[in-house]
Design brief:
about 240 residues; alpha+beta; 3-stranded antiparallel beta sheet; about 25% helix; elongated; 10 strands; 6 helices
């Protein structure tokens, strides 16, 4: 499984929504606290791009040599509608300064020196050491995960539903989507419905809903490094489910 540092680093460098929380800016609108872009530097610091007139930029500018504490809060929402759609949150806290050397016209780059971090996601809640965060690897699928999950859901639903067969006694009775009727009586309503929830280099997580609601992980034989290896791993997984 990915370490807490890897999961946090992946969320920071993902497209998940983020807010930069700064003391004294509690009255600011949420959109004013959302960075336009974010990237992790070579030493583990987090660079955040904001409009030059953003409240966060003014606060960092006025602080000057004083230490201005801040917390970057990231919320990870599943790209497909499921019960309990928030998959996790991460918090990276530290000290905020301006980084004018990296600014763009009309914008200002802020630098968040990481003091501590934590993550609370589908794997659990853990704290993260700043050094571990700086050295952590980003999951290679993060840039494509939302698109891949949506593709699985839309184009490979029958194969995803077949994963119920790998659950053993928890699988219940599943009616294939093609055989369902909109006016079907309650008696033939599937007890479980599979929705792809999360994807990383280690495997696929599926949320099963119906009479029960629970998650199941389907691990790949070996971690994948790119989309090509992912295709092979998914082919193997679906093949196992079909048998």
């Amino acid at each position: 499984m990915p370490s807490a540092a890897e999961r946090t680093r992946t969320l920071v460098q993902s497209t998940c929504s983020a807010l930069l929380l700064v003391p004294g800016l509690e009255s600011a609108r949420p959109e004013q606290l959302m960075p336009q872009a974010r990237v992790v530097g070579t030493d583990g610091e987090v660079f955040l791009l904001f409009p030059a007139d953003a409240p966060t930029v003014r606060a960092a500018t006025h602080a000057q040599d004083d230490e201005l504490s801040a917390v970057l809060e990231i919320t990870d929402v599943a790209p497909i509608s499921v019960p309990q759609r928030i998959r996790g949150r991460a918090w990276v806290s530290g000290w905020l300064t301006c980084a004018p050397d990296f600014a763009e016209p009309g914008s200002m780059m802020l630098r968040l020196e990481v003091g501590e971090a934590s993550v609370d996601d589908l794997w659990g809640a853990e704290s993260v050491d700043p050094e571990a965060f700086a050295n952590a690897a980003v999951d290679p699928l993060v840039a494509h995960e939302a698109e891949l999950l949506q593709h699985l859901h839309a184009a490979h639903d029958d194969q995803v539903q077949a994963l119920c067969g790998l659950l053993g006694e928890r699988s219940g009775t599943v009616v294939p989507p093609a055989e369902r009727r909109a006016d079907a009586p309650e008696a033939v309503t599937p007890r479980l419905r599979a929705v792809p929830l999360a994807l990383d280099r280690f495997g696929l997580r599926v949320r099963f809903t119906g009479e029960q609601c629970f998650d199941a992980r389907f691990d790949f034989p070996t971690p994948v490094r790119d989309i090509t290896e992912l295709r092979r791993a998914m082919h193997t997984l679906f093949g196992a489910a079909s048998h």
